[in-house]
Specification:
mainly beta; Jelly Rolls; five-stranded antiparallel β-sheet
């Protein structure tokens, strides 16, 4: 399948897995319960204890991040750790803010398949935590503790190489900056990417990173001592091909065993890093690292990640921005009015027939959808990705919802891989229509936005338009396609 990257607009995207559970640290303490001897109110006893009931939940759903060296701000390995943050754990799990997992079914959106590696707690587990806190967060008998486990490793399994810029990069100035680093993986024969992990060196300033593949002859920009160049607006390649992405909340990406992304001998990578310095940032130099797993074994399926959306003009030939009630002069425009809490933008992409018909003839290549994700900035509050099949294939419904993220959080982004056999994945055929609907709250009631507004020294919201900087906005569906090689 030819890449649809040239048609999908301004780019900024994500992928992968992060599991966590606790919050950012309110003190422990229980929900009040029964009466004490002096007439006060004290905790009730539910029989739920840490070692018997709570520790197994933390092991399986939380400790991958909440452990020494993990990405979470505190450890939850011991009773003492958990008891200190008991109240916060209860609140974060009751609201399903933790473990962080944005994909949720709703009355209007019920994806056909579950997603792999879903760390979400069951209602019964959430109730156990609430009962434990209500009972005073007791430790219980250490003999009831589950067998010790090492926290799950969220890094890339069996990596073959790790690549960083020639030298760390130091930001110049205070505004948003886009820097492209040239990386040479020294591919001497045809290879296939089967997994990757992008690790920011300084997470306080890295907004996102995109990795593109390029032939060495395509890279004509002058490089500095870090092997990089300025690249606001894109990597400056004639035909950029996205192969990997990172945004806050992203972890390692592992493709299924029979899937890989083809890379030709001599391929180089351009890693575009968006830096967002701010008042609370650590301005230390950054050295973002790309770790990969490459194989010479040809897989059955190829992987094609694409970012679909960010259109700024009216729909033409089935591709573009849908109209909305806030448009001026009757012309679709990507503009989120200041002080609007219910604004919506809808991106439409109808797959052209020439993208599934090989040049020179041959069998038509019909991609299937392996994974899907969402991407907005700070004004965003919810996103939905749907597809309408022109001619349903292999049992696909006429229309289906692929992803619903009802409580968007910029700090916890990922793509969601369907948990089903590859032959059952949804198809995306010629003339199928994919829509990405993004909901925004451009008011001071949007806590993420309000924090950034105050940080920037602004007095209140302003109209927000499509753009690459943090205070601009985007509306993208992150779609991972697969098709037979």
């Amino acid at each position: 399948m030819k890449s649809i990257l040239s048609l999908v607009g301004v780019l900024c995207g994500v992928s992968a897995l992060v599991i966590a559970c606790g919050g950012n640290g309110s003190s422990g303490g229980g929900v009040s319960g029964g009466e004490t001897a002096d007439g006060g109110v004290g905790p009730t006893s539910s029989g739920v204890t840490f070692h018997k009931d709570i520790e197994p939940i933390l092991q399986d759903h939380c400790q991958a991040c909440h452990s020494a060296g993990g990405i979470a701000p505190m450890s939850l390995l011991t009773y003492q750790d958990a008891q200190l943050f008991a109240g916060s754990i209860q609140v974060k799990t009751a609201t399903r803010a933790m473990p962080p997992w944005g994909a949720r079914s709703s009355a209007s959106c019920k994806p056909r398949y579950a997603f792999k590696s879903d760390p979400s707690l069951t209602d019964a587990q959430i109730k156990l935590i609430a009962d434990w806190v209500a009972g005073g967060s007791p430790e219980g008998d250490p003999k009831d503790a589950p067998a010790a486990k090492l926290p799950p490793d969220l890094g890339l399994k069996k990596p073959t190489q790790s690549n960083a810029p020639i030298a760390p990069y130091t930001l110049k100035g205070q505004g948003d900056q886009f820097r492209c680093f040239v990386i040479d993986p020294k591919i001497v024969g045809d290879a296939y990417l089967t997994g990757y992990d992008i690790t920011p060196g300084n997470k306080t300033i890295v907004h996102h990173a995109l990795v593109f593949s390029a032939a060495a002859t395509e890279i004509t920009q002058a490089l500095d001592a870090s092997g990089s160049y300025d690249c606001f607006g894109g990597p400056g390649l004639a035909t950029p091909k996205l192969i990997a992405a990172w945004a806050p909340g992203t972890g390692a990406v592992d493709l299924p065993a029979n899937v890989g992304l083809p890379l030709k001998a001599g391929t180089k990578f351009i890693m575009q890093v968006h830096y967002h310095p701010h008042a609370n940032a650590n301005m230390a130099p950054d050295s973002t690292t790309l770790t990969m797993r490459l194989t010479a074994t040809r897989p059955e399926y190829t992987f094609d990640p694409e970012l679909i959306g960010n259109f700024s003009g009216a729909i033409k030939d089935g591709i573009g921005l849908a109209a909305d009630p806030d448009d001026r002069n009757g012309t679709p425009e990507f503009r989120i009015p200041a002080n609007s809490s219910t604004h919506t933008e809808t991106q439409v992409f109808t797959l052209p027939a020439n993208l599934v018909t090989p040049v020179g003839g041959g069998a038509v290549i019909t991609p299937q959808i392996l994974a899907v994700g969402a991407h907005m900035h700070l004004v965003g509050v919810a996103e939905e990705v749907r597809v309408k099949h022109a001619v349903p294939m292999n049992g696909d419904p006429a229309e289906e919802c692929l992803l619903n993220v009802p409580a968007w959080d910029f700090n916890w982004q990922r793509s969601y891989q369907y948990d089903t056999d590859i032959t059952k994945l949804p198809y995306y055929n010629a003339n199928d229509v994919l829509t990405v609907t993004c909901h925004y709250d451009n008011t001071m009631q949007n806590r993420a936005l309000a924090s950034s507004i105050l940080e920037q020294g602004m007095t209140g919201p302003k109209d927000v338009v499509l753009g690459e900087t943090t205070l601009d906005e985007m509306c993208l569906g992150v779609v991972g396609f697969v098709y037979k090689l």
